[in-house]
Amino acid sequence: MFREFIHYAIPSxxxxxxxxxYVIVDGIFVGRGVGSLALGAVNLVVPLSIFFFGIxxxxxxxxxxxxxxSFGKGKIEKGINLFREILIFLFILxxxxxxxxxxxxxxxxxxxxxxxxxxxxxxxxxxxxAMFCIPNIIGISLxxxxxxxxxxxxxxxxxxxxxxxNVILDYVFIFIFKWGIKGAxxxxxxxxxxxxxxxxxxxxxxxxYLSFGKSKLHKENILNFIKLGFPSFFTExxxxxxxxxxxxxxxxxxxENEMAxxxxxxxxxxxxxxxxLGLSFGIQPLFSFNYSAKKFEKVIYFYKFTIxxxxxxxxxxxxxxxxxxYEIIDLFTHNKFIRHETYIGLCLFNISFFITGxxxxxxxxxxxxxxxxxxxxxxxLRSIIFLPISVxxxxxxxxxxxxxxxxxxxxIFSFITWNFFLKKIKK
Length: 427
What we know:
The protein is mainly alpha-helical and 427 residues long. 87% of the residues lie in helices and 0% in strands. The protein is built from 14 helices and no strands. The protein has helices spanning 2-33, 36-72, 76-103, 105-111, 119-130, 133-148, 152-176, 181-204, 219-253, 256-292, 296-329, 336-350, 353-368, 372-426. It is globular and about 60 Å long.
Protein backbone atom coordinates (compact mmCIF):
# COMPACT_ATOMS: atom_id res chain seq x y z
CA MET A 1 0.00 0.00 0.00
CA PHE A 2 2.88 2.35 0.73
CA ARG A 3 4.19 1.86 -2.81
CA GLU A 4 0.78 2.72 -4.22
CA PHE A 5 0.71 5.87 -2.10
CA ILE A 6 4.15 6.89 -3.33
CA HIS A 7 3.29 6.07 -6.95
CA TYR A 8 0.28 8.41 -6.98
CA ALA A 9 1.09 11.03 -4.35
CA ILE A 10 4.72 11.84 -5.12
CA PRO A 11 4.33 12.73 -8.84
CA SER A 12 1.31 14.90 -8.03
CA UNK A 13 3.03 16.64 -5.12
CA UNK A 14 6.25 17.11 -7.10
CA UNK A 15 4.35 18.53 -10.08
CA UNK A 16 2.58 20.99 -7.80
CA UNK A 17 5.89 21.83 -6.16
CA UNK A 18 7.45 22.68 -9.51
CA UNK A 19 4.35 24.65 -10.51
CA UNK A 20 4.58 26.69 -7.33
CA UNK A 21 8.31 27.21 -7.84
CA TYR A 22 7.77 28.73 -11.25
CA VAL A 23 5.06 30.95 -9.76
CA ILE A 24 7.65 32.13 -7.22
CA VAL A 25 10.28 32.68 -9.91
CA ASP A 26 7.66 34.57 -11.90
CA GLY A 27 7.17 36.80 -8.86
CA ILE A 28 10.91 37.34 -8.49
CA PHE A 29 11.18 38.47 -12.11
CA VAL A 30 8.16 40.75 -11.74
CA GLY A 31 9.47 42.25 -8.50
CA ARG A 32 13.01 42.76 -9.76
CA GLY A 33 12.27 43.53 -13.40
CA VAL A 34 9.06 45.56 -13.18
CA GLY A 35 8.73 46.75 -9.57
CA SER A 36 6.73 46.47 -6.35
CA LEU A 37 3.68 48.11 -7.95
CA ALA A 38 3.53 45.22 -10.43
CA LEU A 39 3.67 42.73 -7.56
CA GLY A 40 0.56 44.32 -6.10
CA ALA A 41 -1.14 44.33 -9.51
CA VAL A 42 -0.48 40.63 -10.09
CA ASN A 43 -1.69 39.85 -6.59
CA LEU A 44 -4.93 41.67 -7.36
CA VAL A 45 -5.55 39.31 -10.29
CA VAL A 46 -4.69 36.18 -8.28
CA PRO A 47 -8.33 35.46 -7.29
CA LEU A 48 -9.27 35.20 -10.97
CA SER A 49 -6.32 32.96 -11.86
CA ILE A 50 -7.33 30.71 -8.96
CA PHE A 51 -10.88 30.75 -10.34
CA PHE A 52 -9.55 29.32 -13.64
CA PHE A 53 -7.67 26.64 -11.73
CA GLY A 54 -10.82 25.89 -9.77
CA ILE A 55 -12.88 25.42 -12.95
CA UNK A 56 -10.31 22.97 -14.31
CA UNK A 57 -10.11 21.12 -10.99
CA UNK A 58 -13.89 20.87 -10.71
CA UNK A 59 -14.28 18.98 -13.97
CA UNK A 60 -11.00 17.08 -13.68
CA UNK A 61 -11.70 15.77 -10.19
CA UNK A 62 -15.45 15.39 -10.62
CA UNK A 63 -15.03 13.67 -13.95
CA UNK A 64 -11.99 11.79 -12.72
CA UNK A 65 -13.98 10.32 -9.82
CA UNK A 66 -16.64 9.04 -12.24
CA UNK A 67 -14.02 7.74 -14.66
CA UNK A 68 -12.12 5.93 -11.87
CA UNK A 69 -15.40 4.53 -10.60
CA SER A 70 -16.20 3.23 -14.11
CA PHE A 71 -12.74 1.70 -14.52
CA GLY A 72 -12.95 0.15 -11.04
CA LYS A 73 -16.19 -1.55 -12.08
CA GLY A 74 -14.73 -2.68 -15.40
CA LYS A 75 -16.86 -0.24 -17.50
CA ILE A 76 -13.98 1.01 -19.65
CA GLU A 77 -16.01 2.35 -22.58
CA LYS A 78 -18.24 4.37 -20.28
CA GLY A 79 -15.18 6.00 -18.67
CA ILE A 80 -13.74 6.91 -22.08
CA ASN A 81 -16.99 8.56 -23.20
CA LEU A 82 -17.18 10.55 -19.97
CA PHE A 83 -13.66 11.85 -20.57
CA ARG A 84 -14.48 12.97 -24.12
CA GLU A 85 -17.61 14.73 -22.95
CA ILE A 86 -15.74 16.64 -20.25
CA LEU A 87 -13.03 17.75 -22.67
CA ILE A 88 -15.49 19.13 -25.22
CA PHE A 89 -17.36 21.04 -22.52
CA LEU A 90 -14.12 22.50 -21.12
CA PHE A 91 -13.05 23.74 -24.56
CA ILE A 92 -16.30 25.63 -24.93
CA LEU A 93 -16.25 27.00 -21.38
CA UNK A 94 -12.60 28.13 -21.45
CA UNK A 95 -13.13 29.88 -24.79
CA UNK A 96 -16.05 31.85 -23.33
CA UNK A 97 -14.13 32.74 -20.16
CA UNK A 98 -11.16 33.93 -22.20
CA UNK A 99 -13.34 36.22 -24.32
CA UNK A 100 -15.15 37.69 -21.31
CA UNK A 101 -11.93 38.44 -19.40
CA UNK A 102 -10.19 40.03 -22.40
CA UNK A 103 -13.15 42.21 -23.39
CA UNK A 104 -14.12 43.29 -19.86
CA UNK A 105 -10.68 43.25 -18.21
CA UNK A 106 -10.92 46.87 -17.04
CA UNK A 107 -14.26 46.31 -15.30
CA UNK A 108 -13.04 43.06 -13.72
CA UNK A 109 -9.93 44.60 -12.13
CA UNK A 110 -12.04 47.45 -10.76
CA UNK A 111 -14.35 44.87 -9.19
CA UNK A 112 -11.31 43.14 -7.70
CA UNK A 113 -10.45 46.39 -5.92
CA UNK A 114 -7.88 48.11 -8.17
CA UNK A 115 -7.10 51.73 -7.34
CA UNK A 116 -5.69 54.34 -9.73
CA UNK A 117 -2.06 53.45 -9.02
CA UNK A 118 -2.25 49.77 -9.93
CA UNK A 119 -5.17 49.80 -12.37
CA UNK A 120 -3.13 49.93 -15.61
CA UNK A 121 -0.70 47.20 -14.54
CA UNK A 122 -3.48 44.91 -13.30
CA UNK A 123 -5.57 45.50 -16.44
CA UNK A 124 -2.64 44.67 -18.73
CA UNK A 125 -1.71 41.53 -16.83
CA UNK A 126 -5.27 40.21 -16.78
CA UNK A 127 -5.86 40.87 -20.48
CA UNK A 128 -2.79 38.94 -21.63
CA UNK A 129 -3.15 36.22 -19.00
CA ALA A 130 -6.75 35.55 -20.05
CA MET A 131 -5.74 35.08 -23.69
CA PHE A 132 -4.26 31.73 -22.66
CA CYS A 133 -7.30 30.55 -20.70
CA ILE A 134 -7.83 27.53 -23.00
CA PRO A 135 -4.38 25.90 -22.55
CA ASN A 136 -4.48 26.87 -18.88
CA ILE A 137 -7.72 25.04 -18.09
CA ILE A 138 -7.19 22.17 -20.54
CA GLY A 139 -3.63 21.57 -19.32
CA ILE A 140 -4.66 21.33 -15.66
CA SER A 141 -7.53 19.00 -16.52
CA LEU A 142 -5.53 16.70 -18.81
CA UNK A 143 -2.82 16.37 -16.15
CA UNK A 144 -5.40 15.06 -13.72
CA UNK A 145 -7.00 12.73 -16.27
CA UNK A 146 -3.80 11.00 -17.35
CA UNK A 147 -2.90 10.63 -13.67
CA UNK A 148 -6.16 8.72 -13.24
CA UNK A 149 -5.33 6.81 -16.44
CA UNK A 150 -2.18 5.36 -14.87
CA UNK A 151 0.40 7.86 -16.16
CA UNK A 152 1.21 10.23 -13.26
CA UNK A 153 4.84 10.55 -14.37
CA UNK A 154 3.99 12.13 -17.73
CA UNK A 155 1.64 14.55 -15.95
CA UNK A 156 4.59 15.54 -13.77
CA UNK A 157 6.94 15.89 -16.77
CA UNK A 158 4.44 18.07 -18.62
CA UNK A 159 3.97 20.37 -15.65
CA UNK A 160 7.71 20.61 -14.97
CA UNK A 161 8.54 21.30 -18.63
CA UNK A 162 5.95 24.06 -18.83
CA UNK A 163 7.31 25.59 -15.64
CA UNK A 164 10.90 25.58 -16.92
CA UNK A 165 9.87 27.21 -20.21
CA ASN A 166 7.90 29.81 -18.26
CA VAL A 167 10.96 30.73 -16.20
CA ILE A 168 13.17 31.03 -19.29
CA LEU A 169 10.64 33.18 -21.14
CA ASP A 170 10.12 35.33 -18.03
CA TYR A 171 13.76 36.34 -18.17
CA VAL A 172 13.70 36.90 -21.94
CA PHE A 173 10.45 38.90 -22.05
CA ILE A 174 11.03 41.00 -18.91
CA PHE A 175 14.77 41.67 -18.90
CA ILE A 176 15.71 41.43 -22.60
CA PHE A 177 12.54 42.46 -24.49
CA LYS A 178 11.47 44.86 -21.70
CA TRP A 179 7.80 43.87 -22.05
CA GLY A 180 7.14 44.42 -18.35
CA ILE A 181 4.11 42.80 -16.75
CA LYS A 182 2.77 41.86 -20.18
CA GLY A 183 5.83 39.67 -20.68
CA ALA A 184 5.17 37.80 -17.43
CA UNK A 185 1.61 36.99 -18.53
CA UNK A 186 2.68 35.83 -22.01
CA UNK A 187 5.48 33.67 -20.56
CA UNK A 188 2.96 31.96 -18.29
CA UNK A 189 0.62 31.28 -21.21
CA UNK A 190 3.32 29.79 -23.44
CA UNK A 191 4.45 27.58 -20.56
CA UNK A 192 0.90 26.25 -20.29
CA UNK A 193 0.84 25.47 -24.02
CA UNK A 194 4.08 23.49 -23.57
CA UNK A 195 2.44 21.45 -20.79
CA UNK A 196 -0.52 20.57 -23.02
CA UNK A 197 1.70 19.50 -25.93
CA UNK A 198 3.69 17.10 -23.74
CA UNK A 199 0.57 15.61 -22.14
CA UNK A 200 -0.82 14.89 -25.61
CA UNK A 201 1.89 12.21 -25.93
CA UNK A 202 -0.19 10.06 -23.57
CA UNK A 203 -2.95 9.94 -26.14
CA UNK A 204 -0.77 9.85 -29.26
CA UNK A 205 1.22 6.86 -27.93
CA UNK A 206 -1.96 5.27 -26.49
CA UNK A 207 -0.52 4.76 -23.01
CA UNK A 208 -3.88 4.20 -21.30
CA TYR A 209 -7.59 3.71 -21.81
CA LEU A 210 -8.47 7.35 -22.48
CA SER A 211 -8.58 8.67 -26.03
CA PHE A 212 -9.94 11.60 -28.01
CA GLY A 213 -13.07 11.28 -30.09
CA LYS A 214 -16.52 12.63 -30.81
CA SER A 215 -19.11 12.75 -28.06
CA LYS A 216 -22.45 14.38 -27.40
CA LEU A 217 -22.95 16.58 -24.35
CA HIS A 218 -25.50 15.19 -21.91
CA LYS A 219 -27.00 17.56 -19.36
CA GLU A 220 -27.19 14.90 -16.66
CA ASN A 221 -23.49 14.04 -17.06
CA ILE A 222 -22.41 17.69 -16.93
CA LEU A 223 -24.44 18.17 -13.76
CA ASN A 224 -22.82 15.05 -12.25
CA PHE A 225 -19.34 16.37 -13.09
CA ILE A 226 -20.21 19.66 -11.40
CA LYS A 227 -21.84 17.96 -8.42
CA LEU A 228 -18.86 15.72 -7.70
CA GLY A 229 -16.22 18.25 -8.70
CA PHE A 230 -17.73 21.30 -7.03
CA PRO A 231 -15.85 20.69 -3.75
CA SER A 232 -12.55 20.99 -5.68
CA PHE A 233 -13.79 24.21 -7.22
CA PHE A 234 -14.93 25.37 -3.81
CA THR A 235 -11.53 24.45 -2.33
CA GLU A 236 -9.80 26.65 -4.91
CA UNK A 237 -12.34 29.43 -4.60
CA UNK A 238 -11.82 29.37 -0.85
CA UNK A 239 -8.22 30.47 -1.35
CA UNK A 240 -9.42 32.97 -3.96
CA UNK A 241 -11.91 34.44 -1.49
CA UNK A 242 -9.16 34.58 1.15
CA UNK A 243 -6.98 36.63 -1.19
CA UNK A 244 -9.89 38.81 -2.32
CA UNK A 245 -11.06 39.63 1.22
CA UNK A 246 -7.53 40.25 2.44
CA UNK A 247 -6.81 42.48 -0.58
CA UNK A 248 -9.81 44.65 0.25
CA UNK A 249 -8.85 44.81 3.93
CA UNK A 250 -5.25 45.76 3.11
CA UNK A 251 -6.29 48.47 0.63
CA UNK A 252 -8.59 49.85 3.33
CA UNK A 253 -6.02 50.15 6.13
CA UNK A 254 -2.74 50.10 4.17
CA UNK A 255 -1.16 51.20 0.90
CA GLU A 256 0.72 49.85 -2.11
CA ASN A 257 3.64 48.70 0.08
CA GLU A 258 1.35 46.44 2.10
CA MET A 259 -0.18 45.16 -1.14
CA ALA A 260 3.32 44.36 -2.39
CA UNK A 261 4.02 42.53 0.87
CA UNK A 262 0.87 40.49 0.46
CA UNK A 263 1.85 39.82 -3.15
CA UNK A 264 5.16 38.33 -2.02
CA UNK A 265 3.42 36.35 0.73
CA UNK A 266 1.01 34.95 -1.85
CA UNK A 267 3.86 33.93 -4.11
CA UNK A 268 5.61 32.16 -1.23
CA UNK A 269 2.53 30.53 0.31
CA UNK A 270 1.49 29.26 -3.10
CA UNK A 271 4.13 26.57 -2.66
CA UNK A 272 2.59 25.12 0.50
CA UNK A 273 -0.99 25.43 -0.73
CA UNK A 274 -0.11 23.71 -4.01
CA UNK A 275 1.74 20.95 -2.16
CA UNK A 276 -1.30 20.27 0.00
CA LEU A 277 -3.56 20.30 -3.06
CA GLY A 278 -1.15 18.02 -4.90
CA LEU A 279 -1.23 15.58 -2.00
CA SER A 280 -5.03 15.64 -1.93
CA PHE A 281 -5.46 15.38 -5.72
CA GLY A 282 -2.80 12.72 -6.11
CA ILE A 283 -4.36 10.37 -3.59
CA GLN A 284 -7.96 10.80 -4.74
CA PRO A 285 -7.78 8.06 -7.42
CA LEU A 286 -6.78 5.59 -4.68
CA PHE A 287 -9.69 6.70 -2.51
CA SER A 288 -12.15 6.38 -5.42
CA PHE A 289 -10.90 3.06 -6.78
CA ASN A 290 -10.57 1.27 -3.43
CA TYR A 291 -13.87 2.61 -2.12
CA SER A 292 -15.64 1.40 -5.28
CA ALA A 293 -13.88 -1.96 -4.92
CA LYS A 294 -14.97 -2.09 -1.22
CA LYS A 295 -11.39 -2.24 0.04
CA PHE A 296 -12.14 -0.04 3.03
CA GLU A 297 -9.02 -0.91 5.06
CA LYS A 298 -6.87 0.50 2.26
CA VAL A 299 -9.01 3.64 2.14
CA ILE A 300 -8.47 4.23 5.88
CA TYR A 301 -4.73 3.59 5.55
CA PHE A 302 -4.37 6.08 2.70
CA TYR A 303 -6.41 8.68 4.56
CA LYS A 304 -4.32 8.48 7.74
CA PHE A 305 -1.04 8.50 5.86
CA THR A 306 -2.14 11.54 3.83
CA ILE A 307 -2.90 13.49 7.04
CA UNK A 308 0.52 12.56 8.48
CA UNK A 309 2.20 13.61 5.23
CA UNK A 310 0.46 17.00 5.28
CA UNK A 311 1.79 17.69 8.79
CA UNK A 312 5.31 16.73 7.73
CA UNK A 313 5.14 19.07 4.72
CA UNK A 314 3.83 21.94 6.87
CA UNK A 315 6.49 21.54 9.56
CA UNK A 316 9.28 21.56 6.98
CA UNK A 317 7.86 24.60 5.16
CA UNK A 318 7.27 26.56 8.37
CA UNK A 319 10.86 25.99 9.54
CA UNK A 320 12.30 27.11 6.19
CA UNK A 321 10.17 30.27 6.20
CA UNK A 322 10.97 31.08 9.83
CA UNK A 323 14.74 30.62 9.69
CA UNK A 324 15.42 31.75 6.10
CA UNK A 325 12.46 34.06 5.46
CA TYR A 326 14.44 37.29 5.11
CA GLU A 327 16.89 35.74 2.66
CA ILE A 328 14.02 34.40 0.54
CA ILE A 329 12.15 37.72 0.59
CA ASP A 330 15.33 39.51 -0.55
CA LEU A 331 14.91 37.72 -3.88
CA PHE A 332 11.77 39.81 -4.50
CA THR A 333 12.66 43.22 -3.07
CA HIS A 334 15.25 45.22 -1.16
CA ASN A 335 12.72 47.71 0.21
CA LYS A 336 13.34 47.51 3.97
CA PHE A 337 9.74 48.25 4.96
CA ILE A 338 8.27 45.69 2.55
CA ARG A 339 10.95 43.16 3.53
CA HIS A 340 10.18 43.38 7.28
CA GLU A 341 6.41 43.46 6.92
CA THR A 342 6.48 40.51 4.53
CA TYR A 343 8.49 38.38 6.95
CA ILE A 344 6.06 39.04 9.82
CA GLY A 345 3.07 38.38 7.58
CA LEU A 346 4.59 35.20 6.15
CA CYS A 347 5.26 33.67 9.58
CA LEU A 348 1.77 34.51 10.85
CA PHE A 349 0.06 33.37 7.65
CA ASN A 350 1.92 30.03 7.68
CA ILE A 351 0.35 29.00 10.98
CA SER A 352 -2.99 28.53 9.24
CA PHE A 353 -1.71 25.86 6.84
CA PHE A 354 -1.46 23.20 9.56
CA ILE A 355 -5.25 23.27 9.78
CA THR A 356 -5.74 24.10 6.09
CA GLY A 357 -4.06 20.81 5.16
CA UNK A 358 -6.51 18.77 7.24
CA UNK A 359 -9.51 20.63 5.85
CA UNK A 360 -8.34 20.19 2.23
CA UNK A 361 -7.69 16.46 2.70
CA UNK A 362 -11.02 15.92 4.43
CA UNK A 363 -12.79 17.73 1.62
CA UNK A 364 -10.95 15.73 -1.05
CA UNK A 365 -11.64 12.47 0.76
CA UNK A 366 -15.41 12.95 0.85
CA UNK A 367 -15.36 14.06 -2.76
CA UNK A 368 -13.44 10.97 -3.86
CA UNK A 369 -15.92 8.61 -2.17
CA UNK A 370 -18.89 10.38 -3.80
CA UNK A 371 -20.04 12.39 -0.77
CA UNK A 372 -19.70 15.89 -2.27
CA UNK A 373 -22.22 17.37 0.16
CA UNK A 374 -19.75 16.91 3.04
CA UNK A 375 -16.96 18.49 1.00
CA UNK A 376 -19.14 21.46 0.13
CA UNK A 377 -20.01 22.04 3.80
CA UNK A 378 -16.32 22.15 4.72
CA UNK A 379 -15.52 24.60 1.91
CA UNK A 380 -18.59 26.72 2.70
CA LEU A 381 -17.51 27.06 6.32
CA ARG A 382 -13.95 27.97 5.31
CA SER A 383 -14.76 30.61 2.70
CA ILE A 384 -18.28 32.00 3.02
CA ILE A 385 -18.93 31.82 6.77
CA PHE A 386 -15.79 32.22 8.85
CA LEU A 387 -13.32 33.94 6.53
CA PRO A 388 -15.07 37.31 5.99
CA ILE A 389 -15.95 37.44 9.69
CA SER A 390 -12.34 36.63 10.69
CA VAL A 391 -10.85 39.22 8.33
CA UNK A 392 -13.23 41.95 9.50
CA UNK A 393 -12.87 41.34 13.24
CA UNK A 394 -9.14 40.57 13.25
CA UNK A 395 -8.24 43.58 11.08
CA UNK A 396 -10.41 45.86 13.24
CA UNK A 397 -8.75 44.86 16.51
CA UNK A 398 -5.21 43.90 15.43
CA UNK A 399 -4.66 45.84 12.20
CA UNK A 400 -2.35 44.33 9.62
CA UNK A 401 -1.24 41.50 11.93
CA UNK A 402 -4.89 40.58 12.32
CA UNK A 403 -5.22 40.29 8.54
CA UNK A 404 -2.26 37.89 8.43
CA UNK A 405 -3.83 35.76 11.20
CA UNK A 406 -7.40 35.77 9.85
CA UNK A 407 -6.95 32.60 7.70
CA UNK A 408 -5.88 30.70 10.83
CA UNK A 409 -8.99 31.79 12.72
CA UNK A 410 -11.17 30.86 9.75
CA UNK A 411 -9.59 27.42 9.30
CA ILE A 412 -9.67 26.46 12.97
CA PHE A 413 -13.30 27.54 13.41
CA SER A 414 -14.22 25.60 10.26
CA PHE A 415 -12.43 22.48 11.50
CA ILE A 416 -14.08 22.60 14.92
CA THR A 417 -17.54 23.30 13.51
CA TRP A 418 -17.38 20.54 10.88
CA ASN A 419 -16.14 17.88 13.30
CA PHE A 420 -18.84 18.89 15.78
CA PHE A 421 -21.45 18.38 13.06
CA LEU A 422 -19.80 15.09 12.05
CA LYS A 423 -20.14 13.70 15.58
CA LYS A 424 -23.81 14.67 15.60
CA ILE A 425 -24.32 12.94 12.24
CA LYS A 426 -22.60 9.76 13.44
CA LYS A 427 -24.78 9.67 16.56
